[in-house]
Amino acid sequence: MLLWVGLAVSVVIIALIVVLCSYMRGEFYFSRVKDNDTLSVEMRGLFGLVRYRYVIPIIQFKGFTQGILIKSEKVTQHNAKLKDETRDHITKDKVITFYKETKDVLVHTLNLYGWMKQTLAKVECTELKWITRVGLGDAPETAITTGAVWGIKSSLLGFAVRYVKLTAKPRIDVIPQYNAKQFATEFRFAGRIRVWVAVMAGIRLLYRAAKIKGGIRTWIQYVLKAKARFKPAS
């Protein structure tokens, strides 16, 4: 009997070690071609057994009063079954409210910036692709704009790479379209982090929040409010 109990405990411990040493993988994708925008976020874990994908196939700018209309879809791991669908308007008031809530979280967490920097340093970037096509219908203006876009990309990527570990060769390009008016872009970022690193990061975050009076309560309210913003589609 003791032998079987010991064997069961050993199996559980080995399985736990394997899970903690496995990777959590994430991918962010955005593309814009003419007036068609697509944004998707995918998370995978436990060797692909756990997988969630959020897709925003509709992004419509309704003006400064109505803001931006988005439609999002949540897909199961088989990518064929629609699990949930939501619609929302991102207005100026919602952006201001989000800013105030985020600022409140910063105040109630001990050195949140340091925690973010420390956690991002453990993230490995396994794919980075950013291809942009620019055309203004005029060759000199297109050339100038192409150079400006290159400068913006270099600055943004240089800032981002300072915080994450780049393990793949980035594919960055700006392609001028001299004979057409066009702006199209495709951006893909894929990264991974060990499960045990993510767990320890979560524990450190709770510890930092607990060091400030009302920190844990503030984080709970922040998460609950974030979930409440996404309502079922009508």
TrEMBL record:
Keywords: Membrane, Transmembrane, Transmembrane helix. The chain crosses the membrane at residues 6-24. It comes from the Bacteria. Pfam families: DUF2953. This is DUF2953 domain-containing protein. It comes from Paenibacillus oryzisoli.
